[in-house]
Design brief:
With 116 residues, this protein is an alpha+beta fold. The chain has a single domain (2-107), classed as 2-Layer Sandwich (Double Stranded RNA Binding Domain), CATH 3.30.160.100. It contains 2 helices and 4 strands; from the N terminus they run βαβββα. It starts with a strand and ends in a 9-residue tail after the last helix.
Length: 116
């Protein structure tokens, strides 16, 4: 699973931040690693002109699942850590739901499986 970290001009995208976010994403999505080919993480400060703000930090994560359209989630929070954690939780639930629906559809197929 490839993880790409992107930041806006208001967040310093240093190596420590990238390593921390990558580690969290890998840990959260480890059980889906055979299905997820890439995760793009976009971090931004929505209230950059103000020094503090409620839910100012935004994390958007987009996952690419094998053979499927990308899926994305967004989470806003007061701190960057909270935004990343919230987005990772949402993405985990969305992937679980998406893969569960696929398994459900495959179990109800009546035509022969073209792969098998």
């Amino acid at each position: 699973m490839q993880i790409e970290i992107n930041t806006d001009g208001n967040i310093e995208g240093h190596e420590a931040l990238a390593a921390q976010v990558s580690g969290l994403v890998e840990s959260a999505l480890r059980r889906f690693s055979e299905h997820v080919t890439r995760v793009d993480v976009h971090l931004s400060d929505e209230n950059s002109d103000k020094k503090v703000g409620y839910n100012a930090m935004r994390c958007m994560m987009e996952a690419r699942l094998e053979g499927r359209q990308p899926i994305a989630v967004t989470h806003q929070a007061t701190t960057l850590d909270e935004a990343v954690d919230g987005a990772a939780d949402k993405l985990t639930r969305l992937i679980e739901h998406t893969l569960g629906r696929l398994r459900e559809q495959q179990s109800h197929r009546t035509d022969p499986d073209p792969a098998g």
